Amino acid sequence: MLYLFVSLIYLAVLAPDLLKLFKLIQRPSIETNLSRYLKNIYLILIFKGFTLSIILIVFKVNIFHYSHPISYSDHNKITFSDFKGLKTPGQQHQGTDDFAFIKTNIEIKWHDNAVSVISYFHPSRSYVYFDDLENEALLTHELYHFHITELFARKIRKKISDMRDKSDKSQINELYWLLLKEEDSMQLNYDYETNHSQLLGKQLNWQKKIDSLLLNLGLFEKTLVEF
To answer: Fewer CB atoms near the end CB (10 Å): N or C, the chain?
Structure first.
């Protein structure tokens, strides 16, 4: 969506020169200098490429192998082949390059008489160091980060359901950011206590804990909360 927005801005800037260039090609004029319009177009395209490169660096999104975010309802279909993000050359974890990184988030979307709270996995912002890596234990570890994200999405849905005025956007946004901080803390503790999946006993304990918490909030599995 971000890249589409940037592209639309540059397209709007390009449009006048493109239109003039098209008209000149259709009806060439000896007195007209086409190079001026071509130069403008080249400069704008260069700046567009520069802008997208900055976005790629800042947001670490693989724009060359982009895939749309995957909602939690399809989490059981995710494999390491979906991890298409950019990895830093030479990056290692505790001396090994047998590692992965998953990017997830929670989005709130407003409707006329409802609000949807959806957790997403971002393929183009997630990566595995080796493209052909087959490590089920590591994949399971990464996917439980996604389960934690969904857990907090359900907590948000429950909190909204318990609110008297479910249409109060400011209160819901405040709740949203508060629970995101709690999620960040839990994500960090999960990685720390399991040593990024290296401690099998701790990993299994965390999986049981997360499964239990998700089950307890099973009534809030649906993404839509009606007013």
So the answer is: N
